[in-house]
Amino acid sequence: MVIDSLLDTDLYKFTMMQCVLHQFPAAQVEYKFKCRNEGTDLQAVIGPINEELDHLCALHFRREELDYLRSLRFIKSDFVDFLELFHLKRSAVSVTRAEGSDTDIEIRVRGPWLHTIMFEIPVLAIVCECYYRKFYPDTDFTLGRERLAQKIADVKKHPGLGISEYGTRRRFSKEWQKEVICTMRDQMGLQFTGTSNVYFAMTEGLTPLGTMAHEYLQACQALGPRLRDSQKYAFEMWAKEYRGDLGIALSDVYGIDAFLSDFDMYFCKLFDGARHDSGDPYQWGERIIEHYKKNRCDPRTKTLIFSDMLNIPKTISLYERFNGRIRVGFGIGTNLVNDVGVPALQNVLKLVRCNDQPVAKVSDSPGKSMCEDESYLNYLKSVFNMR
């Protein structure tokens, strides 16, 4: 099966889920799937996807997995106690043919946020692997290994550069992701800084990485006191939960202008840094550095995490631009774990409603925004003075 462990997901699902348990236990949400590759025939794998979901929803956390989570400094004991009883509800997720299309599928996840938040990464990994098994069953990893070897060689030419693996949701397969992770660990030493995948972090002795995702800030649009303050509210509640730990703030739910407006001196000093996930990374980095200076923070004590569709040449270029001026980290996903010579799927499962209200992400990159309510999207843009 594609997923055999509930740890086979990104760390930020656990860090957000813990925050939901303590801060927003009654929140109700809805997620919607989208494949950004037009014309991709996912209807051909609806059957296998549903079979995989049946298996996923029968899984529980194993004792050794719970013990591992309990060993992480930022995971609280009562959260692990909750996870001991946790499983995903099959009735919360549905997979059907998209109306009016011969190729698209519709995946919806509905229910309490606390009980649905763990669906996203496994669902996306399942869709990818079912698709590749169907349409590329004879793919070997010869080309992928050659490309990976070149990437590792290029990174090693820059001894101070460290990269992490962030690719679970869009991996070619679980098998290939494991090979990539183990190869990088064995050949790169300290230049391989970790993985977002909690299962492989546990089994391969790596550092698990992640803090918050877009859905967290989106949900706060419905959970906070008023929309204009929702970003600041999200950061306040994160600080309430983690008390200064896991201090990398996501910057692109409302665009960089709105982020800088809300990320005042208090947040500049409280959070360790920010993560880039859309828009021009060079302009973003320059603006963040200048913002820290204006708010009397030494940029050299802060961290920028770049994670938007990176490849190795772009990563090296960003490292050369910002190294020494501010701390930098790089999370590479698809280009590491789905670069084997076949088209990489660009699938997402995004939050579209919270407490029966529409929510939205307005990206700095065209095509990455997602909202089902056009009037709400326009209202959101006006509230945050977005063009």
From TrEMBL:
Domain annotation Nicotinate phosphoribosyltransferase N-terminal: ranges: 7-127
Q: What role does it play?
A: Catalyzes the synthesis of beta-nicotinate D-ribonucleotide from nicotinate and 5-phospho-D-ribose 1-phosphate at the expense of ATP.
Which UniProt keyword terms apply here? Glycosyltransferase, Ligase, Phosphoprotein, Pyridine nucleotide biosynthesis, Transferase
Instruction: Give the reaction(s) catalysed.
Output: 5-phospho-alpha-D-ribose 1-diphosphate + nicotinate + ATP + H2O = nicotinate beta-D-ribonucleotide + ADP + phosphate + diphosphate
Q: Known EC number(s)?
A: 6.3.4.21
Q: Does the keyword Protein biosynthesis apply?
A: no
Gene Ontology terms describing biological process: NAD+ biosynthetic process via the salvage pathway
Q: Name one GO cellular component term.
A: cytosol
Domain Nicotinate/nicotinamide phosphoribosyltransferase, chain residue ranges per copy = 163-386
Return the similarity comment.
Belongs to the NAPRTase family.
Query: Which EC class heads this enzyme's classification?
Result: ligase
GO-annotated molecular function: glycosyltransferase activity; nicotinate phosphoribosyltransferase activity
Protein modification: Transiently phosphorylated on a His residue during the reaction cycle. Phosphorylation strongly increases the affinity for substrates and increases the rate of nicotinate D-ribonucleotide production. Dephosphorylation regenerates the low-affinity form of the enzyme, leading to product release.
PANTHER family assigned to the protein according to its UniProt record, in alphabetical order: NICOTINATE PHOSPHORIBOSYLTRANSFERASE
Q: Which SUPFAM superfamilies match?
A: Nicotinate/Quinolinate PRTase C-terminal domain-like, Nicotinate/Quinolinate PRTase N-terminal domain-like
Tree of life domain: Bacteria
UniProt modified residues of type Phosphohistidine: 214
Pathway involvement of the protein, from the record: Cofactor biosynthesis; NAD(+) biosynthesis; nicotinate D-ribonucleotide from nicotinate: step 1/1
Q: Which InterPro entries does this one have? A: N/Namide_PRibTrfase (IPR041525), NAPRTase_N (IPR040727), Nic_PRibTrfase (IPR006406), Nic_PRibTrfase-Fam (IPR007229), Nicotinate_pribotase-like_C (IPR036068)
Q: What's the name of the protein?
A: Nicotinate phosphoribosyltransferase
